[in-house]
Amino acid sequence: MALLITHKCINCDMCEPECPNQAISMGNEIYEIDSDRCTECVGHYDKPTCQSVCPIDNTIIINPQHTESNEQLWDKFVVLHHAV
């Protein structure tokens, strides 16, 4: 599943530089996550690093519109990073 940054975002700039997939960028008002690039840090970390560094609880959540299995997240990681 891709993650989603909610309206609770305070634009603190903590998440964007920590994303290993470059999936986070500034939107019109708050940071946004590109679901095509988000692997929930599969292939990099044990848990999503953006959630770990976000200072506001429950600001970065699972995006219900982009559900993916762990296998799909791994496949996306391989494509993004040309891993074999």
Task: Give the gist of this structure.
The protein is an alpha+beta fold. It is built from two helices and four strands; from the N terminus they run E-E-E-H-E-H. Helix content is 20%, strand content 14%.
Your description of this structure?
This protein is of the alpha+beta class. The protein has 2 helices and 4 strands. It has helices at 49-53, 70-81, and strands spanning 3-5, 24-26, 31-33, 60-62. The strands form 2 sheets. It has a two-stranded antiparallel ribbon. A two-stranded antiparallel ribbon has the order 2-3. Strand 2 (24-26) and strand 3 (31-33) form a beta hairpin. The longest helix is centred in the last third of the chain and has 12 residues, at 70-81. The protein is globular and about 35 Å long. The mean pLDDT is 95.
Using DSSP, what is the number of strands? 4
Number of helical runs? 2
User: How would the global form be characterised?
Assistant: globular
Q: What is the residue-averaged pLDDT?
A: 95
Let me know the largest β-sheet.
2 strands, antiparallel
Proportion of strand residues: 5-15%
| Euclidean distance between termini CA atoms | 22 Å
The SSE order reads EEEHEH
Major β-sheet strand ordering: 1-4
Structural class: alpha+beta
**CA-atom Rg in angstroms:** 12 Å
**What would you call the quaternary organization?**
single chain
Helical content class: 10-25%
Low-pLDDT residue intervals, each spanning 5 or more residues = none
